[in-house]
Amino acid sequence: MRIVVIMDGPETVNPETDTSFALMLAAQERGHRVWHCDSSQVELVDRRVCAWARPAAIHEQSDTPLLLGPTEHLDLTEVDVVLIRTDPPFDPDYRHLTLLLDYLVDSTLVVNSPRGLRDANEKLYSYRFADITPSTIVTSDADRLMAFSRHHGSAVLKPIEGHGGRGVMVLRPDDHNAASIIDTLTVRGRTPVIAQQFLENVSAGDKRILLLDGEPLGAIMRVPTEVDFRANLCVGGRSDAAELDEADRRIITRIAPSLRADGLVFVGIDVIDGYLTEINVTSPTGLRQLTALTGTRVDLDVIRWFENAVS
Predict the structure, then answer these.
(1) Distances in Å between the alpha carbon of 96 and those of 4, 38, 90, 100?
(2) What is the pLDDT, as a whole number, of residue 216?
(3) 3-state DSSP assignment of residue 154
(4) Contact at 8 Å (CB) between 220 and 233?
(5) pLDDT of 73 above 70
(6) Between β-strands 169-171 and 193-197, what pairing exists: parallel, antiparallel or unpaired?
(7) Strands (DSSP E) along 77-214, which ranges?
(8) What is the mean pLDDT of residues 122-142?
(9) CA atoms within 13 A on the CB side of 243
(10) Whole-prediction pTM value?
(11) In the chain, at which residue ranges do the beta strands (DSSP E only) sit?
């Protein structure tokens, strides 16, 4: 296959933790050709979606894990798979990328679906499944946010377009900084934020479950440090092996039909204490850690799925 991966620059790659790198490495091992480009290098020319892309050589044990060759102009209707792996936030540039890639729907496998990416905000998409999520509100009203926090004892506030734990804060009604936290995150009442019931068992870990076409690849437990309630790996959380339990399977069964309908093939869901808290669709992480902790090559499973889908 010919695979184009749209992602951030090669200087951002950490081979030990980078899921995009894992997918590219697995594709190379399966004998496929891989190209790299960023979102600014995708264009629409003569009604065809093209990209200024560079062939990639992937090396697991190297000071240059992602070595790129000379730039080529590729017609993306003639490649087999386009992977959208640009990191959030979902800003105007990201939206414009998805609008261009919409024109590939009838010719090329695009993962995840551009339309699905536009419709499935990573913080709000889980709110469609209110029966399996913590109590949640979305508002910019300070009084309502404070009342919600008092009702539940405490709440977690999240920017709607946030990622990697950035801007996520605990709101406690007895905290002297509470008003300032609300003021900061809502930009003085002009920007809505997500408030979720704070789940005390987050200290035991935030389970990241990777799904492929609605089926589980496996799970890791992201455990926060003693000085931070956030379990994101990028802010110091530790990854441990984890098994799926009955609550996890109930959540997966509940959301899988919607994921498939929206073309969200490769996603990572976050589960805390049996509740679905987020559905990550833009560039879900954890594949490298899952492979290391389980000793199974789930990255190759993803590539085999692409092969079957294309064939």
Answers:
(1) 18, 13, 10, 6
(2) 98
(3) coil
(4) no
(5) yes
(6) unpaired
(7) 81-84, 109-111, 136-139, 155-159, 169-171, 193-197, 206-212
(8) 95
(9) 2
(10) 0.93
(11) 2-6, 33-37, 42-45, 48-58, 66-68, 72-75, 81-84, 109-111, 136-139, 155-159, 169-171, 193-197, 206-212, 215-223, 238-242, 266-272, 275-280
Q: What is the pLDDT of residue 232?
A: 65
Cβ atoms of 166 and 121 within 8 Å: the answer is no
Counting residues of the chain whose pLDDT is more than 90, the rounded percentage is: 83
Active site residues: 123, 158, 208, 222, 230, 270, 278, 280
Cα separations in angstroms, 243 against 198, 228, 269: 23, 24, 14
| Higher per-residue confidence, 73 vs 201 | 73
Rounded Cα distance between 180 and 237, Å, is 26
DSSP per-residue codes, 68-80:
E---EEEEGGGSS
Contact status, residue 14 vs residue 287, Cβ threshold 8 Å: no
**Contact criterion met (CB below 8 Å) for 223 and 205:** yes
Can you give the pLDDT at residue 88?
85
Per residue in 207-239, pLDDT (tens digit) is 999 999 999 999 999 987 765 676 566 666 788
**158 alpha carbon, distance to own chain's centre:** 15
Fill in the amino acid letter for 199: L
| Buried-exposed string 62-91: b where 16+ CB fall within 10 A, e elsewhere | eeebbebeeeeebebeebbbbbbbbebebe
Could you tell me what percentage of the chain is helix, strand and coil, using 3-state DSSP and rounding each to the nearest 5? Answer: 35, 30, 35
Token look-up 């950035």 returns: 166
For residue 270 the two structure tokens come to 């976050």
Asked whether 10 and 68 are in contact (CB, 8 A), the reply is yes
SS3 302: helix
Bridge-partner residues for 169, per DSSP? 157
